[in-house]
Write a structure and sequence with these properties.
With about 220 residues, the protein is of the alpha+beta class. Helix content is about 50%, strand content about 20%. Helix 2 packs antiparallel against helix 3 and helix 6 packs antiparallel against helix 7 (about 205-215). The two termini are about 40 Å apart. About 20% of the residues are buried.
């Protein structure tokens, strides 16, 4: 899916074995109002020069063009400093021209990902994402996302891959103790519970693996 930019765009510090999957700037619709205002202001300026009206009118039109250009410039800078990043472990949002703000959501805490598009947004392939997650973040909304349906699908793919990697690490941990092949299912559940108490597994991961083992009975 050709949605990504280089790592240097978002300036994200990656953890061990973590890699960037998507690094997106907002859709061009992000600054469409400012671009339209600039085009209209330039058109009015050209008309004013053609009519050769009073100097006061020309000055007013010139100020209008400068204001529209400044508005567009500020919005464009905001576009260049706004990123929505999906890694193999996290969802990351970065924005801000002078002061920077950011949001990070671990994939294991993501519960549901919604997307919404108006009819026009479907035509230009833009939209919004709403991500419900466990913890303090609750619900996070990300606007002007390029191809939101594809991004939603990729988030779910990475969530599944992230979960599988965690289960693989649990299996390797148990195998290192020589317990995978010899322990009964109740014993394996007790071992998983010990890993949970030690902080190696979250409650959700423990419950998922426990349910998987119980289905084998």
């Amino acid at each position: 899916m050709p949605l990504g930019y280089r790592v240097a765009v978002a300036q994200v510090s990656l953890r061990n074995e973590e890699r960037i999957v998507l690094d997106l700037r907002p859709h061009w619709w992000f600054f469409s109002s400012q671009a339209l205002a600039l085009v209209v202001a330039i058109a009015v300026g050209i008309m004013a020069l053609a009519v050769d009206g009073p100097s006061e009118l020309n000055l007013l039109v010139g100020l209008l063009v400068l204001a529209a250009a400044g508005w567009f410039g500020v919005r464009y800078l905001a576009w260049t400093t706004t990123n929505f990043v999906l890694t193999t472990d996290r969802l990351i949002s970065r924005n801000g021209i002078i002061s920077r703000t950011g949001t990070e959501i671990p994939l294991e805490r993501v519960n549901t990902v919604f997307f919404s598009q108006s009819l026009f947004e479907r035509m230009v392939r833009s939209g919004d994402l709403v991500i419900e997650s466990a913890g303090e973040m609750g619900t996070s909304r990300f606007t002007d996302i390029r191809r939101p349906l594809d991004v939603q699908s990729e988030i779910y793919n990475q969530m599944e891959a992230n979960e599988n990697r965690k289960f693989d690490r649990v299996g390797q941990n148990l195998a290192g103790q020589g317990l995978v092949q010899t322990a009964s299912i109740p014993d394996q559940i007790r071992q998983l519970d010990e890993l949970r108490r030690d902080g190696a597994l979250t409650n959700a991961e423990f419950e998922a693996k426990k349910a998987e083992l119980l289905r084998r009975l």
